[in-house]
Prior knowledge:
The protein has 9 helices and 7 strands; from the N terminus they run αβαβαβαβαβαβαααβ. The chain is α/β, with parallel strands linked by helices. The longest helix is centred in the middle third of the chain and has 28 residues, at 119-146. The chain is globular and about 50 Å long.
Amino acid sequence: MPPFFMAAxxxxxxxxxxxxxxxxxxxxxxSGIGLGIAKGLGTAGAVIAIASRDQAKASDALxxxxxxxxxxxxxxxxxxxEIEVRSMLTTVFEKHGRMDIVVxxxxxxxxxxAEVLTYAEWRQVLDTNLDSAFHCSSACHAYLxxxxxxxxxxxxxxxSIFGSPWAPAYGASKGAxxxxxxxxxxxxxxxxxxxxxxxxxxxxxPLTQKARAELEGLNEKVLARTPAKxxxxxxxxxxxxxxxxxxxxxxxxGAAIPVDGGFSIAMM
Length: 268
């Protein structure tokens, strides 16, 4: 291939991942995986709107994003409340006149076996992990469609495919996220909206740091089973998020992609 065509092809490939001019909403984007995704999308050129009910954490996250040269701001929102989700999305859309990417990342866990988990605790986990993703996806559909199409990235878990005695509510919510992803992907494909799901493995976040403190030997077990021989970190989600948020993934929808260093394919 002549050098001119090689150069043109190289530029075209790079443009596949360019997010300049795009607007992204990241729920739970003030820490952990959400912040890692926000950094990735922002580095690729997207304007980032962090939806968070903890404005102190959001301020810390914004400082990190601004220090990296990323255009970002926060919108207060309790994602378990549908009225707040709709208000937050309306605020973002009216500010920019468009919306292109929505990341449903907000999540929590209560580590208890089913026989001692209360219904109120069950509802707390499902409201945060599952209902919030439904509220946000349902409400953003019209805005993405008006913008000519868009991307929704849901955050599942390895517990979307595995079971755990200490996470009945969390596992149920994350398994449902995968099925919600598939339903939305089939419903909205003709609107040029791609909906995909990431399945994080053992990632070093405040949530898993608490798990290591509560579960003796967890660190050693994770390292022994993970082929990569390390815990993941939030920055490991930047690349896959850019791919799923960009035109590079325009024919990828309904997928559930493990990001786990090989944990889910290793027997021991």
